[in-house]
Amino acid sequence: MKSVDDKRFQIIGHIVMIVLSAVAVIPIILLVVSSFTDNDVLVRNGYSFLPEKLSVYAYQYIFKTGNSVIHAYGISVLLTLTGTILSILITTLLAYALSKSNLPYKNLITFIVFFTMLFNGGLVPTYMNYTNVFNIKNTFWALLVPSLLCNGFNVLLMKSYFVSSIPGEIMEAAYIDGASEFKVFYRIALPLAKPIVATIGLFSGIGYWNDWMNGFIYLTKRTDLYSIQNLLNRTMQNIQFLSQYSTNVKEAGAGLAAIPSVSIRMAMAVVGILPILVIYPFVQKNFVKGITLGGVKG
Amino acid sequence: MKKIMAVIICCTMLTTMLTGCGGSSSKDKVGATQTQTGEATATVGASDTSDISDPAAKAIADRKAEAEKTGKYKKVVLSFFTWTGAPAGLDRINTLLKTYTEEKLGLDVELSIQDVAAYQQNAKLMLSSGEQMDIFTTCTLSYTNSASTGYCLDLEQDNLLQDYGQGIINAIKPEYINACRIGSKLYGVPGLKDYTISTAAIIIANEYLDAIGYDYNAADPDNKGTVKADWKLIDDLFAQMHAEFPDKYVYSTQDNILSQGSSVDPIGGDFFGSLLDTVNSLKVENTFESSIYYDWCNRMYQWNQAGYISPDALTDTTGASARIKSGACMAMMACSKPGYKTQISGECGRPVTVFQVGEDVLKSSAVSSFPWCINQNTEDKVATVQVLNAFYEDPYLSNLLVWGEEGKDYVETSDGHIDFPEGVDANNAEYYTTMLWLMPNYFISHVWNGDPLDVYEQTAAFNDNAAKSKALGFTWDNSDYSSEFTALTNVYDEYAPSLAYGFVDPKEGIPEFVDQLKSAGLEDYIAAKQKALDDWAAENSVK
Amino acid sequence: MANKNNNTVQSSHKKKYARFIPLYIMALPGLLYLFINNFMPMPGLVLAFKKYNASKGIWGSDWIGFKNFKYLFATQDAFVITRNTILYNVAFIIIGTISSIAVAIILSELHHRIKNFYQSVILLPFMISMVIVSYLAFGFLSTDNGFINNSILKPLGIEPVSWYREKNYWPFILVFINTWKGIGYSCIIYLAAIIGFDRSVYESSAIDGATKWQQITKITLPLLKPTIIMLTLLAVGRIFYSDFGLFYQVPQNQGALFPVTNTIDTYVYRGLIQLGDISMTAAAGLYQSVVGFVLVISVNLIVRKIEPENALF
């Protein structure tokens, strides 16, 4: 039953979203256009929606030279898939356990989880830990494990959802029927928690896809393990470094000349978000399906 | 924060990579202790560049015997960076290297190459966590900081350098080696390169000079590579170029007016207190109150007012030569050296003329800006020193490191140069590092096509003939003043670029800048530097 | 329900803990990971109080008390960087929360399928790294050929603005960019929460004649309260941190803008990139963590007084 009030809301809502979408998209269009712009034109005239001269040189460069971009995509995909699945598993289990109000030491454990969000040993101790104690340097594990596999934020978010959105009575009933904890988790809590699981999965997936830090510090020899964002950000870091210190490092001028030009950087950025652009609509369909299915209660 | 901490973690004391040399260090420690410890077996001839003293030969023989028994050679890793990371052909080079060094040194030597930002980031991590990084360059890490943090080995410990590093001692002049001493201990050895700089070299692309009718060939009849000039000529040329090409910017800026544009010596590693007359005086003064600084800022201000500089100069991160390459700008300023014209023409993508306005100077920290160091925790100190030594004296190793594999990465030309093989160029080369200036000793390697065959001799002479800084050899660990340094750096980043690019009238801008520096602790910082310098001068009998 | 309480005392103890074993097993992977990833390196925080020397290692290096912290406080910039960091974060929390909730509500209420398209599109900016964003911002704000100067101001006859030299615009520019980048991502949490709400309450209120606005303010917002409080508390914990890319790269490290763009993180970076002192970096990190921690505990205590179930603990 669509009232006038609802109709008005719909119109306002659409207008707002159209404006927001436009604002979100316009710079991205600029990004794509500049990746197809001839580099010298880019340097001379700056970024423009209607450049003087177009060129596919940037993409040719990326796909032909250096480390294979296709290979890097493969690594990114593999990493994101495994990482997200493992992350969801670990996070959900922990969050579920913490959501049980009668769990002994629950508050202590929750506090410990929270504590990890604020305090961090620092880069050097973390690096030493993973490199010397666990020997994961220059392996795939180095991309998967540090920082990304589970974090306090996701755990607490999920815990809060379990607590507030999953009625205790349903679970009590299951206990009475003799169900084990795992069964209750798997059969009842998890399906009801679909929205939050999908959310955490999305966050985790995005986190893995975008991460370049792990690769930057832990991969010094295995260039075949570079993910897409790692590839892109190495270049960016090199450029930032050089342009900052070209005053002091007089050879840096040559370095800046050797590094991929602006249009190539733009192209690398596009290459980095391209799969997301392609895949996200599919992910989102399931996301929404999962959410709405989970939302039907009563 | 993680990200920031990660990026911060490795310091970049790139200050003064400018060449500046000079320094009469009267303490000729290295020369004095150069004794022949020969015993019966090994030949000890000064001109014999292969192993001289007995301990060295003995060590190699021992290692090889050990390796025969166990079948395993000890590994030594040499770490550095290139602008773009590990070259595609690295594995191939490492294989060749391994074969050669197993035979020659009884060791498996491996090159570890990263990209520059990663190197800066990771070197300290690796050194702190005890990973294998036996020999490393301190470029992008601060040499003084690395030494004071305990990363670097004292090379004269147990006579290591004397017994196993004769090649190094022979290749580098004693005054240059001594320039890398920190408080009389030697923690690193410099790579051989151009330490001297010819300051204030104005580079102008030839096509614009043609358009205004300036005959650069006539100006350099002997084809020396540079044209002697003064500011009047430059201003004149710029005015004509600006009139002729109103839609281009004349001058492509960089933040190098002090480092490359003047002979002001960033004593101790930064410009917060420098030697204004480095050849004659040891007085540490406030750089930014000097007339040299005022003149430069004023010149830039005039140029900016005249419209020679892009309004976006401050925010532009493209390199100065890249802007000339793209046709946006017509001229830039840098420092010159033998063979520079070829190099900068390549960078700018077109022939250029180099106008020499400043003078040649060897600044105090030019030699010690980024020595090669050995890891304090290296497993076999003798072996590591011998590896470093080998790169200084063995042409095969130097060529392998610098240029790659003969036949695949370079070929000899008919006149004694080397060049790309058929079908290979700078874009698809598998091993073309362009990091000549970083290498231990490229003087014993081939000369690339385009440079005169004697360019290495010219460079060595260039170094020796320049006016040298009195303070050559002085290094300063500023960790006690890190709080002031951070504050000063923030002030510098806030005010200096606008002045250096001529966006602010120096008459008002400089006093404001200096005031802020003073309240950030500049005077204490300068006083501390001066004291350290005075102490050093007294110890080394430098007047 | 009832039969649990009927067990005898002896076996009730065993049963009690036995009952929880499966839960502990479930919690184990996560806790193990957090232990390895976060707690094992934590003793390394002592670096903040030591003068690190590689030959002595972390444990052997000398203690120097609070010297490593000096550079954060004993400077004329200390006030500016602290003020900037806090004020920006407060602005981000307020504006971010309001805008994310608004968008989440709109998206949840739209009927047309195109809402999925909207949601995908507004998420895109999040996927671009801040460095690229800084290039794009330059494309808009460049003095010479930026989009704003050339295509908006010039046709209107307004003088071009030297954006990177005028600090007064930048608080707005930075807040805008931060919101632009984050809104697609942060609205997801709220959206997931909203979609999980029981629809029957809305239906019955509609029957009673409630307007959309009333539904939003009287049903949706109160139901979102736990989520809002939790997210705000967590954000407060990070109030001394700032997005390095946003405050360093987007303003292109321009000195003229420092009074409004210099934060604790950028200040530390500028100094330490040349000093490279590991212990000083550790000190900065510790400082930020401790302040955030104290703030969160305090705010949590306040929340506990007012809304006990919504406190973090």
Commentary on this structure:
- The complex is a heterotrimer of chains A (298), B (543) and C (313).
- Chain A is built from 15 helices and no strands.
- Chain A has 298 residues and is an all-alpha fold.
- Chain A has a domain at 67-259: Orthogonal Bundle (MetI-like fold), CATH 1.10.3720.
- The two termini of chain A are 22 Å apart.
- Chain B has 543 residues and is an alpha/beta fold.
- In chain B, a hairpin with a 2-residue loop joins strand 4 (181-182) and strand 5.
- The longest helix of chain B is centred in the C-terminal third of the chain and has 19 residues, at 482-500.
- The model of chain B is unreliable at 4-52 (pLDDT under 50).
- With 313 residues, chain C is mainly α.
- Chain C has a domain at 75-276: MetI-like fold.
- Chain C has 15 helices and two strands.
- Chain C has a two-stranded antiparallel sheet.
- The radius of gyration of chain C is 25 Å and the shape is flat.
- Chains A and C meet through helix 1, helix 4, helix 5, helix 6 and helix 8 of A and helix 2, helix 5, helix 6, helix 7 and helix 9 of C.
CATH topology tier name of the domain at 67-259 in chain A: MetI-like fold
Q: What Rg of chain B do the Cα atoms give? A: 24 Å
**Strand fraction of chain A:** under 5%
Which overall shape of chain A is indicated by the principal axes computed on the Cα atoms?
A: globular
Segments of chain A where pLDDT lies below 50 for 5+ residues?
A: 293-298
Strand/helix succession of chain A: HHHHHHHHHHHHHHH
Report the sheet-strand fraction of chain B.
Answer: 5-15%
Helix content of chain B: 25-40%
**Number of DSSP-assigned strands of chain A:** 0
Q: Specify the CATH class of the largest domain in chain B.
A: Alpha Beta
